[in-house]
Amino acid sequence: MENTAKLSTSKEVIAYLAEQFPGCFTLEGDARPLKIGIFDELAKRLADDGNVSKTRLRSALRQYTNSWRYLRGVKAGVQRVDLDGADAGAVEAEHEQHAQEQLQASQAKAKEKQAQRAAERKPIATKGRNTKNKTGDNQVKGAKKRKSVSIPRSGSSKPAVAQPITTKAALESVQPGQVKVGDKVQVKVGSMAVQGTIAGIEKSEVQVQLPSGMTVRVAVSELFRS
To answer: In degrees rounded to 5, what are phi and psi of residue 118?
Structure first.
């Protein structure tokens, strides 16, 4: 009987990759930078594997290479690794810079969410304390307790979300007739604009090689220049 029970989450796929390719992927500790174009190699190795779909594999690889521990390991001069754990070329300085920009943007976004959650909890906690401290004539003891409600305002010291690549200019769409192999472009990965290099062109789609080592296939209409 054919096995159709595919892995359903990126976390499960990453764990499976670490089991199948222990010299390349790891679940904890330092993560080595992956070989450029490793997605294509993975797709070939797992072509007959019924556990992982290409779509889920691409999502899992994106999650792995966007993790903080992976981005911290992308340092200029460090050897990238192939599926068998062998050296596969040194990380370039521009790839390290891009990884650091991604890391800073991700950390800033996480801090912003943490601050928002804290701000949402404070009014509720304060309301409970004020109700408990009311006197018989319905007056609240210690009016200065209201100061405990702190809602971040624009211009406060709360870190803003960093723009990973484009900070001074808006993104400009790339026209279909203006793309060629080797061009530097930007492509949206989730909510972030990521820099990459066009590695191949096929009709209305192109393959973009990212500094993290993976290659993504997108429509020409999703390419931008700053």
So the answer is: -65, -40
